[in-house]
Amino acid sequence: MKVKARSTRRLSQRTAFALLTLATAIVVIPALLIILYIIVHGVSAIDWGFLTQSPSQAGKSGGIFPAIVGTFYLMLGTAIFSLPIGVLAAIHLTEYAKDNRLTRLINLAIISLAGVPSIVFGLFGLGVFVMTMHLGLSLRAASLTLASQALAMVITTSREAILAVPREYREASLAIGATKWQTVRHVVLPQASSGIITGAVLAMSRAAGETAPILVVGAAFIVPGLPNSPFDQFMALPYHLYTVAAQVPGMPKSMMWGVALVLLAVVLSFDIVAAIIRSKARQRK
Amino acid sequence: MNIAQVQLNGRVVTQDKLGKLRTEKVNLYYGAFQALRSITLDIPTRAITAIIGPSGCGKSSFLRIFNRMNDLIPGARVEGNVEVDGIPIYSPSVDAVELRKRVGMVFQKPNPFPMSVFENVAYGPRRHSIKSRPELEDIVEKSLRHAALWEEVKDKLDQSALALSGGQQQRLCIARVLAVGPEVILMDEPCSALDPVATLKIEDLMRSLAEEYTIVIVTHNMQQAARVSDMAAFLMMEADRAGVLVEYGPTSQIFTNPKDKRTEDYITGRFG
């Protein structure tokens, strides 16, 4: 009787374990397959010229250098517009705002913001930044648009990082006569910084991969040369990929996969940076 | 309460020492809930006063009245008069930040910052705009010596404070408080997370600190209260869960000859 109970228990333990492993495999294997597929098909297109030249013949030959640079400019612009505001807002919401209905409403709004489809942000950017504020179809309008979208993620991840700092540290600081701001500046933020940076890097890598919002606010298929200023139109990898894959007939297959591979490499390298920051921070504790 | 002059284990609390901390008919509310009712108490300077009583009777809440840490809890409200050196600390003209420099606090769980030993002690002085390195080094050494920790950590000032043992961490937290130059040190069950040896070290330290500082300690440990304190206050919950002061007096009297039946029951372990 007892033996039987033990063996059933062991069986159910094994079944559960197998199911969990299967679930993990279902998640991981397609992701690996996608990456592998892109690498296999795209790697033949990658050479020095592809990475350093401008496109020619409507993108059918030549390189994608302006799109790579444009994507980095976009990430930089998005970071400039979203990180300071996002982190400061997170500090305010966690440390200063009273826990009342307004604060809860704002928190709810931020969470909802993260769920807004990206094309809606694109239209918002077109309406507000391009047309109303007359910023034109430009790098700055696109950066602001992507920043609006990234803001939700920056605030949410910063907030979580700040809330994860134990209350004991705050109390210890306040109890020896540090002001609230000193406590935030010297105890809370250093503790939360790795979480905040990780969130910021992930938000930027996501911004780098967005196609829909920039489609309508300044990304162009072919721009002669690099953008000289934030007022210029620009090329960007995701939009370039969309165009070469879907808009230009007779596009060499390796060209598409090559662009996809570069975009993937850019996004993944940022994700890896985020992972490294996180593990470094964990070791330090 | 008349305490003219009482002999306690060779220690003396005289009338003129009273009045460092004073509460008069103090009520504490968390929202609608009353946590403390009408507490009137007079705590002597340069002595150790223990706050004892069963769990949940508001001992820690009472302690946090003196450095206004309750201010941080939304909905907390204090009524009545609380004085430090005769100054009503809940009057609008008193800055809680300034108050906490004079009334320091040590917590139940050792909570050194995840920084070096040196930076932990220098934290307070730095916030109060002491920037010069020699001056900081001087304060850090003095504070660590004062907290009986210097000899153990003088060679690892740059190492993480989190690498220290629990008892060392707690003494570091005491040094961190001393570095700011307080007059009063509030201790909220400072030994409850420590082993007996570390506990004894902290108790010895408290005795030596009591020559310069006014110490108020909340403790669950009756032996500890009997060992270290000069005065003892016994708090209890009433039917509505509000804490009231049952008895207050010299520790020797509270422990050997309590006037209130409830104090006697508690001390002899009949409840709580």
What descriptors fit this protein?
heterodimer, A: MetI-like fold, 76% helix, B: 272 residues, alpha/beta, 6-stranded mixed β-sheet, 10 helices, 12 strands
Number of strands of chain B: 12
Shape of chain A: globular
- Chain pair sharing the greatest interface: A-B, 20 and 28 residues
> Which segments of chain B are poorly predicted (pLDDT under 50) over 5 or more consecutive residues?
1-10
CATH fold-level name of chain A:
MetI-like fold
Count of DSSP E strands of chain A? 2
Which geometry of chain B do the CA atoms define?
globular
- So how many helices of chain B? 10
Could you characterize what this model shows?
- The complex is a heterodimer of chains A (285) and B (272).
- Chain A has 285 residues and is mainly α.
- Chain A has a single domain (62-284), classed as MetI-like (MetI-like fold).
- Chain A is built from eleven helices and two strands.
- With 272 residues, chain B is α/β, with parallel strands linked by helices.
- In chain B, strand 3 (21-30) and strand 4 form a beta hairpin.
- Chain B has helices at 59-63, 96-102, 117-127, 133-146, 150-153, 166-178, 196-209, 222-228, 251-256, 261-267; strands at 5-8, 11-14, 21-30, 33-43, 48-52, 76-84, 87-88, 103-106, 184-188, 214-218, 231-237, 243-250.
- Helix content of chain B is 32%, strand content 27%.
- Chain B contains ten helices and twelve strands.
- Chain B is globular and about 55 Å long.
- A six-stranded mixed β-sheet of chain B has the order 8-9-10-5-11-12. A four-stranded antiparallel β-sheet of chain B has the order 4-3-6-7, with no helix packed on it. In chain B, strands 1-2 form a two-stranded antiparallel ribbon.
- The longest helix of chain B is centred in the middle third of the chain and has 14 residues, at 133-146.
- Chains A and B meet through helix 7 and helix 8 of A and helix 2, helix 3 and helix 6 of B.
